[in-house]
Design goal:
The chain is α+β, with helices and mostly antiparallel strands and about 150 residues long. It has four helices and eight strands; from the N terminus they run ααββββββββαα. α3 packs across α4. The mean pLDDT is about 85.
C-alpha cells in the first residue's frame, strides 16, 4: 500500500486534501519491473493505470503496416496505461521498462467505482488525467512529426 508522503510527492496527487488521499491511497498497488520488462502489450486488455515512481518506461506503438515506434518516454511522476482509465477495452500501445522501474497501479474498474461513489474526487482525478493526456499527446505529436521527417530524409 502507498504511503501518503509518497503519494503527495507525485504530480497527479500533489495538493490533494487528506480526505481525498484517504479515498485514493488504498486503491493503488506498488509494483516493480526489471529492465526490458514489458508492463503491457499493445492490443491486450487495458486493466491498469500506472503512475511511475522510479525508472523509465517507453511507450511504443506498432502500426499494422510498419515497424514499432517509440512515441514517448515516461519518467518519474508520469502516468501511463491510461486506456484503462478511459474505459477502453485494450491498450493502444505497449509499455516497456528501459531500466528497472517501480510504479503504483490502479485497476481502471477501481478508478471508475471511485469516481461513481465520490464524484467530487472523481472530477479532480479526471481533470488531472486530462492534463497529463493532453501534454502526452502534444509531445507524441511532435515525436511522430520528427520520425516522419527523418523517414523522408532517408
Amino acid at each position: 500500500m502507498m504511503s501518503v508522503p509518497t503519494v503527495q510527492s507525485l504530480p497527479l496527487f500533489q495538493g490533494l486534501k487528506q480526505q481525498t488521499l484517504d479515498l485514493i491511497v488504498p486503491r493503488f498497488e506498488y509494483e516493480t519491473f526489471a529492465e526490458d520488462e514489458i508492463v503491457f502489450e499493445q492490443d491486450t486488455t487495458a486493466k491498469k493505470l500506472y503512475v511511475l515512481v522510479a525508472g523509465k518506461v517507453e511507450i511504443r506503438f506498432k502500426p499494422h503496416d510498419g515497424e514499432q515506434l517509440t512515441v514517448t518516454e515516461i519518467e518519474e511522476g508520469g502516468v501511463f496505461g491510461w486506456s484503462a482509465a478511459l474505459g477502453r477495452d485494450t491498450y493502444t500501445s505497449c509499455a516497456v521498462c528501459v531500466e528497472g522501474s517501480s510504479a503504483f497501479s490502479v485497476l481502471g474498474e477501481e478508478l471508475k467505482q471511485l469516481c461513481e461513489q465520490y464524484p467530487d474526487t472523481g472530477v479532480i482525478i479526471l481533470e488531472r488525467l486530462a492534463e497529463v493526456i493532453a501534454q502526452r499527446l502534444q509531445k507524441t505529436h511532435a515525436n511522430v512529426v520528427e520520425m516522419l521527417q527523418e523517414g523522408v530524409k532517408l
